[in-house]
Specification:
Blueprint: E1 2-6, H1 11-20, E2 28-33, H2 41-44, E3 57-58, H3 61-67, E4 70-73, H4 79-88, E5 93-96, H5 106-113, H6 120-125, E6 126-128, H7 135-139, E7 143-145, H8 149-163, E8 173-178, H9 193-196, E9 201-202, H10 210-221, E10 229-234, E11 241-248, H11 255-266, E12 272-274, E13 292-299, E14 304-311, H12 315-329
Helix pairs in contact: 1-12, 3-4, 8-10
Bound molecules: NADPH dihydro-nicotinamide-adenine-dinucleotide phosphate and N-acetyl-L-glutamyl 5-phosphate.
């Protein structure tokens, strides 16, 4: 398959390069740039020297569409909104890692992203690529909106309870922590070493753009579901997300019933692992892999469940899930190229 990566010099692009090197169907990979035409990828990323002997080509959506069977858009907000339709018009599959096509209501997108939404025709064609829960639609999709990193961790953790209508409306609190690679390769005041090392920050309080994305999917699963509290934090690590979620149950569950809901949902799904009782996942235990590990506890005193969900933001939260979706779209084994043991320690 001929694959194009737009935004190959960014962190999402670099992670696609790492993973696609082990993918048997990814034979012909072209890399596109908006600023570094003609530069060898090794100059941006010496760690891929001798593995990718390729120079960056200028990003022209018409050429990219013509020359590719599938394109990954690993680009900042706004780029996919503008160019996906033209790329897809060549019959090319598009997987967008940005948030441009995830929100189905353009008014909600514009409120949270503070920029113009994509054309409604493009948004309507895009299928939300939460691989474990939207398989049939993904299998027949031409355009995928790859989920955000926080929504992936949060939604995989909440799905079994929401599907079983077990949660009291308005009781969902998602307390999430991420590493700095989530902010991309460009240095910012928020993430540079002196600001972030030995520090722990809360950010975008009640205003993060992943809030409507999580609410939209929860509502599609259960129309009783409404507003949530979602609070991101930045911690001094590079990769990883931990979403700790607190939800009030409608009726008490035994611990056995709680674990049974999660096993019914995820047994047979290769990338979601449910921990045993009293065992909680750490971000390092999924580092560099496509796993989402989930730990659970029901507190009889409060009637609340605590769900702990961890992913690697660069893999299951971006490039890994994008490749899982590429596999589903093309009728391949969903694990193809993704059989990675987490890097530990
Ligand atoms: N990092 C993460 O953990 C995750 C990221 N995402 C999303 O994936 C997308 C990429 O993120 P990430 O790789 O971290 O970001 P980076 O900032 O590291 O990389 C983005 C790349 O996009 C390219 N680019 C910028 N403007 C344009 C343009 N107008 N046309 C074409 N290419 C352009 C740049 O490359 P060049 O200058 O060579 O053109 C740049 O290297 C973002 O939307 C991000 O929000 C989603 C989930 C997780
Ligand atoms: C540390 C940091 O800044 N993380 C990013 C992660 C989100 C992201 O990558 O955005 P999309 O997946 O929606 O494009 C953030 O909070 O905005």
């Amino acid at each position: 398959m001929r694959i194009g990566i737009v935004g190959a010099t960014g962190y999402g692009g670099a992670e696609l390069l790492r993973l696609l090197n082990n993918h048997p169907e990814a034979k012909n990979i072209q890399l596109y740039t908006s600023t570094k035409e003609g530069v060898h990828i090794e100059e941006s990323y010496p760690h891929v020297a001798t593995i990718y002997d390729t120079s960056l080509k200028p990003f022209n959506p018409e050429v990219v569409g013509e020359d590719s069977d599938l394109v990954f858009m690993a680009t900042p907000p706004g780029v996919s909104a503008q160019h996906t339709q033209e790329i897809a018009s060549h019959g090319t599959q598009v997987i967008d890692l940005s948030g441009d096509l995830r929100i189905t209501d353009p008014t909600i997108y514009e409120t949270w992203y503070k920029r113009p939404a994509a054309q409604i025709e493009t948004i309507n064609q895009a299928v939300y690529g939460l691989s474990e829960w939207n398989r049939e639609a993904i299998q027949s999709a031409r355009i995928i909106s790859n989920p955000g990193c926080y929504p992936t961790a949060a939604l995989l953790g909440l799905a079994p309870l929401i599907h079983n209508d077990a949660i009291q409306q308005h009781s969902i609190i998602i307390d999430a922590k991420t590493g700095t690679s989530g902010a991309g390769r460009s240095a910012t005041m928020m993430t540079h070493f002196s600001e972030m090392n030995e520090n722990f920050k809360i950010y975008q309080v009640n205003t993060h753009k992943h809030t409507p994305e999580i609410e939209q999917q929860l509502h599609q699963w259960n129309n009783e579901s409404g507003a949530i509290t979602f609070q991101p934090h930045l911690v001094p690590m590079i990769r990883g997300i931990m979403a700790t979620m607190y939800v009030q149950l409608k009726k008490p569950l035994t611990s056995e019933q709680l674990f049974s809901l999660y096993h019914q949902a995820y047994d047979g799904k290769p990338f979601v692992r449910i921990r045993k009782e009293n065992n909680y996942p750490a971000t390092k235990e999924v580092y560099g892999s496509n796993y989402c590990d989930i730990g659970l506890s029901y507190d009889e005193r409060t009637g609340r469940v605590t769900v702990v969900s961890v992913i690697d933001n660069m893999v299951k939260g971006a490039a890994g899930q994008a490749i899982q979706n590429m596999n589903l779209m093309n009728g391949w084994d969903e694990s193809m190229g993704l059989n990675l043991v987490p890097v530990y320690p």
